[in-house]
Design brief:
25% of the residues lie in helices and 22% in strands. By secondary structure, the chain is an alpha+beta fold. The longest helix has 20 residues, at 197-216. The protein is globular, with a radius of gyration of 20 Å. It binds a DNA duplex through loops.
Length: 278
DNA sequence: CCCCAGTCCTGCGGGC
DNA sequence: TGCCCGCAGGACTGGG
């Protein structure tokens, strides 16, 4: 499931298209169900064809192609979306083909097995409304202890649930929330309004450490094998996981069996020996 | 403010 | 062995 490190890996994988010109964005006849574009196919094609690719950014878990017109193509992979520059894992789920001229990278694809992802073309005004600071928090790679405490310190929510709130902090999903709290030594059910400054410091430090390390490893490929980098290779961070999807296995630090609980209808993994409530 | 359940969607694994 | 159900969860929505 693409979270910040996986999406950052996608972004870096297609940076070779920057400075080029979008020849075409073609919606492929995916036999399951062609991707829903916004706006619809004709307008999407008209407003993207021939546009310069000025930059490729990441906003949280989305890849953003900045076009010369000021419009932005926003790719939101959600659970199973992938950006690929080579043959796909399974051509059945290819949804879009991007063709580029005048740059090193000539072609890339959007692939999505389950089809929960979205690709949207947004005007500058729409970008501000949908992706601006009122909708989305600061990027997780920029967090500090003060910023986390400011945004979450008054909340009665459990810290693990709050870390998933994209209005609070941007880019953390279920997997990395678990890993971050393990590294910080914080119990996932600890209430935000009961955490001290030193604990916020540990959470901020762990957030940067875990996400930056995961980017170096090009993200996590889980046992279902869905996430791949743009070259259709496995990521490497799954081998560094401390708790995610390890229920019953001994903690690598203290040996206690890793626990699985459910918070806000999502699985949470943690070590009862290493992670305390305060 | 915050929580919860439902929605989208497909593949896989557990259980019978 | 084979089939079916439920689970996986990112983002969003509507109701409490």
């Amino acid at each position: 499931m693409p979270e910040l490190p996986e999406v950052e890996t996608m972004r870096r994988g297609i940076l070779g298209a920057v400075g080029g010109r979008l020849v075409e964005v073609e919606r492929l006849a995916c036999p399951r169900k062609p991707i829903n574009l916004a706006p619809r196919v004709d307008a999407f094609r008209r407003r993207t064809t021939g546009q310069d690719i000025a930059a490729i950014d990441r906003i949280g878990k989305r890849v953003v192609l900045r076009l010369g017109s000021g419009d932005a193509i926003v790719i939101e992979p959600r659970m199973t979306g992938l950006v690929l520059t080579c043959d796909p894992p399974d051509p059945l789920y290819l949804r879009l083909r991007f063709t580029v001229s005048g740059a090193k990278l000539r072609e890339f694809w959007y692939w999505d097995r389950r089809g929960l992802g979205h690709v949207r073309l947004l005007t500058p005004a729409q970008q501000l409304a949908a992706l601006g600071p009122t909708k989305l928090g600061p990027d997780a790679l920029t967090v500090t202890a003060e910023l986390l405490r400011e945004r979450l310190g008054g909340s009665r929510r459990a810290i693990k649930v709050a870390l998933l709130d994209q209005k609070a902090v941007l880019g953390i999903g279920n997997l990395y929330a678990a890993e971050i709290l393990f590294v910080a030594g914080v119990h996932p059910a600890a209430r935000c309004d009961q955490l001290s400054r030193p604990v916020w410091r540990r959470i901020a430090d762990a957030t940067l450490a875990v996400l930056e390390e995961a980017i170096l490893y090009e993200g996590s490929t889980l046992s279902d094998g869905t996430y791949r980098n743009v070259l259709n290779q496995d990521g490497g961070y799954q081998n560094q996981h401390r708790v995610y999807d390890k229920a019953g296995e001994p903690c690598g630090h203290c040996g206690a069996p890793i626990r699985r609980i459910v918070q806000a209808q999502r699985a949470t993994f943690y070590c009862p020996g290493c992670q305390r409530r305060k």
